[in-house]
Design goal:
Elements: H1 2-26, H2 33-62, H3 64-73, H4 75-83, H5 102-111, H6 114-130, H7 133-144, H8 149-170, H9 179-197, H10 202-230, H11 236-249, H12 251-265, H13 267-292, E1 295-300, E2 306-311, H14 323-332, H15 352-371, H16 375-382
Antiparallel strand pairs: 1-2
Helix pairs in contact: 1-11, 2-3, 2-8, 2-10, 6-9, 6-10, 6-11, 6-13, 7-8, 7-13, 8-10, 9-10, 9-13, 12-13
Length: 383
């Protein structure tokens, strides 16, 4: 069993990045590619949620062995679809020749892109501590609510219904998801995960799990699409491979840690740990991103002391989007003026001394022009 599990993991290590990068060769054109990437990402992420839910119902109905057999038979459809692809109609990108140091190159490339680093850091926390529903939901159903496999399948189905809704909403996107949307999805998901831990009744847990699954898939879809559409076409496959390592690599470690927390403090503590960790990650990344964009905190004393967020430096031509993101946006989404969220930069205000001089010169000019008028015109004005 362990050998089969190891072999499956090795196969997925090659399969997942290649399948993610293959979408850009199936769908050509800058107009359709963002939507195709979002749709593929939604399918990929929702399958991780729908699979265990359906598997729980099948196991409850026919047992574990037949469930594995039915799962293996579904790959017939995958193979049939693969053989229907016509290689002559693919939109192939220039293939990079194999050379030493390619792994180091992609790591340096991601490190030089703060917009990608933010996604990698956030999804590492989400994948490690926030996405342990494959064992926390069964534990919640069995240990806290005292129900069997059929009821556990019902909770998983509620979670899967929400995930499917989030996948359908995320697949409609036609541009690269902004960083603010990704952080917002992650924050709402984290808050809902904490809310699951506070539910006192079985039916209420099922209700809360619906939006939890929706926002989790919306977050995963936005992150996947943001990485794919932001990476260079020549490096997209290697960037996605590194993303999969970061996203899925921490899951075994996180599962061990969260399971120990559940064993000592109860299963609800596992939900709380995941939600709080993701909320902290969102807060730190949002603060770092705001600092990079020139936002600073300023203490104002007075009758009501307060802290205000003020913008330092030049006004951004695209609020909420970094310089690296704008460079990528011009390559992926077209000219800068066509990128969603771009506003013309307002003219910088002159310094105070300069503005006083300008006002004084304007007044002098008006006085001079008034003095140059005929006397009769000035008398008419006075009358």
């Amino acid at each position: 069993m362990f050998l089969f599990a190891a072999a499956l993991g090795m196969a997925q290590a090659f399969d997942n990045p290649a399948r993610q990068a293959f979408v850009s060769e199936l769908v050509g054109g800058e107009l359709l590619l963002p939507n195709a990437v979002s749709l593929n990402s939604a399918t990929f992420n929702s399958a991780r949620i729908l699979g265990p839910a359906v598997g729980g119902l099948v196991i409850a109905a026919v047992g574990v062995g037949p469930a594995f057999l039915l799962n293996s038979l579904t790959y017939i459809a995958v193979l049939w679809a693969f053989f229907q692809v016509r290689p002559t109609e693919l939109f192939r990108t220039e293939r990079v020749a194999r050379a030493s140091g390619q792994l180091r190159e992609v790591v340096q490339y991601v490190r030089s892109r703060p917009d990608l680093m933010m996604v990698f850091a956030l999804m590492m926390v989400v994948g490690t501590l926030g996405m342990n529903f494959n064992f926390t939901i069964p534990l919640l159903a069995r240990a806290d609510f005292g129900v069997g496999a059929a009821s556990f399948g019902l909770l998983s189905t509620c979670f899967a219904v929400g995930a499917l809704g989030g996948a359908l909403v995320g697949s409609r996107r036609r541009t690269r998801p902004p960083a603010t949307a990704l952080l917002a999805y992650a924050a709402v998901f984290a808050a809902l995960e904490i809310a699951v831990a506070a539910t006192p009744w079985f039916w209420l847990a099922g209700v809360v799990l619906v939006p939890t699954g929706g926002f989790l898939i919306a977050c995963n879809t936005a992150a996947n699409a943001r990485v794919q559409l932001g990476a260079s076409p020549q490096l997209r496959g290697r960037v996605m491979a590194l993303y999969m390592v970061v996203f899925f690599g921490g899951t075994p470690i996180g599962a061990i840690f969260v399971s120990m927390i559940c064993q000592v403090f109860g299963v609800r503590a596992g939900f709380v740990i995941g939600g709080v960790s993701v909320l902290l990650a969102v807060g730190v990344l949002a603060a770092v991103r705001a600092y990079r964009h020139g936002t600073r905190m300023r203490w104002e004393s007075g009758r009501l002391p307060r802290i205000r967020l003020v913008a330092a430096g030049a006004v951004s031509t695209a609020p909420g989007r970094s310089t690296e993101d704008l460079v990528t946006a011009t390559e992926v989404e077209g000219p800068l003026e066509a990128v969603p969220g771009i506003k013309p930069a307002p003219a910088p205000a002159p310094p105070p001394a300069q503005s006083r001089l300008l006002a004084r010169s304007t007044e002098d000019h008006l006085d001079d022009s008034h003095r140059s008028e005929p006397v009769s015109a000035r008398r008419a004005d006075r009358s």
